């Protein structure tokens, strides 16, 4: 029996999946964050996250120590043939055995999963944001993904940060009143005035600020005009990323599928409605479609395809069914994070 490994690693967590050549997902594992491997402590963090997630996936499938035919990694902040990729490759060699290891950016595996390796565009809004597309000729283009200081427009961090700023302006009397002044402290578990100080001191990180985004979208859904403005601005930014990618590629028809991916879209129509409107303005041919697979499955699809195994409808259906069976009842499954189509309205 030959096994394939797909890994999606990011700033919040690392998810890996193991499947057979037939497309049967035998195990899923989760680990901690594995991003920015060249930062202080990055190698140790990646080693712990990858080893924990792979070990859990193999144990879940009742599989012992194996040599994977192909292991495909999609990691935040890592691109192919870079120093970061080489450093990650050294870590991977310590953790697992594989005949071939492929390392690239997490957006690549997210696009492969969301569109089942077919042409189209994904717009990712998690802790960060980026858009990535591939046209029918195999040409790729990207927009965004420049990190929280230089980009990440429309991301969970951007929404959470904008919400905190708006609440602080309301508290100071320099901005309009908003329900965010009450909702954000509840979501953060600390006073509004303490949030900036905790961030500056390192007691709150980008991931914690990003986790405030659901409170902002909830306020927007409840009709708060300030929160609605924050969400509309995020939608416009994400639509701009997708439109920029669409303009950079060639499409034989006027229809370009755009799949929204990432935790921010768990808000469902609260963000999808304005995103759809903005896309119609900036890229009239773009059509929002629900993502088909989670990024970790996208990594499996790329691993299978690189091995020359066709992604037939039967194999895709088996991947979908066995992934759902494995993820059902797990914390990731209940939250919807690893079930990309569950939030779609």
Structure description:
The protein is of the alpha/beta class and about 350 residues long. The protein has two domains: about 5-115 and about 290-335, ATPase, nucleotide binding domain (Nucleotidyltransferase, domain 5); about 120-290, ATPase, nucleotide binding domain (Nucleotidyltransferase, domain 5, 2-Layer Sandwich), CATH 3.30.420.40. The chain is built from 14 helices and twelve strands. The chain has helices at about 40-60, 85-95, 105-115, 145-150, 155-170, 180-190, 195-200, 205-210, 215-220, 225-250, 270-280, 295-305, 315-325, 330-335; strands at about 5-10, 15-20, 25-30, 65-70, 70-75, 95-100, 100-105, 120-125, 130-135, 140-145, 255-260, 285-290. The strands form three sheets. A five-stranded mixed β-sheet has the order 3-2-1-5-7, sandwiched between helices. Strands 10-9-8-11-12 form a five-stranded mixed β-sheet, sandwiched between helices. Helix 9 crosses helix 10 (about 225-250). Mean pLDDT is about 90; it is low at about 330-335.
Helices and strands in order:
Blueprint: E1 3-9, E2 14-20, E3 25-31, H1 42-60, E4 67-68, E5 70-75, H2 83-95, E6 97-98, E7 101-105, H3 106-114, E8 120-125, E9 129-134, E10 140-144, H4 147-150, H5 156-172, H6 180-188, H7 194-200, H8 206-210, H9 213-221, H10 225-248, E11 256-261, H11 269-282, E12 286-288, H12 295-306, H13 313-327, H14 331-335
């Amino acid at each position: 029996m030959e096994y394939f490994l797909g890994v999606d690693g990011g700033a919040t967590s690392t998810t890996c999946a193991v499947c057979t050549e037939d497309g049967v997902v035998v195990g899923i594992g989760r680990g901690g964050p594995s991003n920015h491997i060249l930062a202080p402590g990055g190698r140790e963090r990646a080693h712990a996250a990858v080893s924990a997630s792979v070990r859990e996936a193999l144990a879940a499938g009742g599989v012992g120590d194996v040599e994977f035919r192909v292991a495909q990694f999609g990691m935040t902040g890592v691109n192919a043939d870079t120093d970061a990729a080489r450093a990650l490759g050294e870590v991977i060699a310590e953790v697992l055995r594989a005949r071939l290891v492929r390392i690239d950016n997490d957006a690549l595996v997210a696009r492969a999963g969301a569109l089942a390796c077919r042409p189209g565009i994904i717009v990712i809004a998690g802790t960060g944001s980026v858009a990535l597309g591939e046209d029918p000729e195999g040409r790729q283009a990207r927009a965004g993904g420049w990190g929280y200081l230089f980009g990440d427009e429309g991301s969970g961090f951007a929404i959470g940060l904008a919400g905190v700023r708006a609440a602080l302006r309301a508290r100071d009397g320099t901005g309009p009143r908003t329900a965010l002044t009450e909702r954000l402290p509840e979501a953060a578990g600390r006073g509004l005035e303490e949030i900036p100080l905790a961030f500056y001191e390192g007691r709150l990180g980008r991931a914690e600020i990003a986790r405030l985004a659901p409170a902002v979208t909830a306020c927007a859904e409840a009709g708060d005009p300030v929160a609605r403005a924050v969400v509309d601005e995020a939608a416009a930014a994400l639509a701009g990323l997708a439109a920029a990618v669409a303009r950079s590629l060639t499409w034989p028809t006027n229809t370009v599928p755009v799949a929204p991916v990432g935790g921010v879209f768990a808000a469902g129509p609260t963000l999808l409605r304005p995103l759809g409107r903005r896309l119609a303005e900036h890229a009239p041919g773009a059509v929002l479609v629900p993502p088909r697979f989670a990024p970790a499955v996208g990594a499996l699809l790329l691993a299978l395809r690189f091995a020359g195994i066709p992604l037939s409808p039967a194999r895709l259906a088996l991947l979908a069914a066995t992934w759902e069976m494995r993820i059902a009842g797990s914390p990731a499954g209940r939250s919807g994070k690893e079930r990309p189509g569950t939030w779609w309205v």
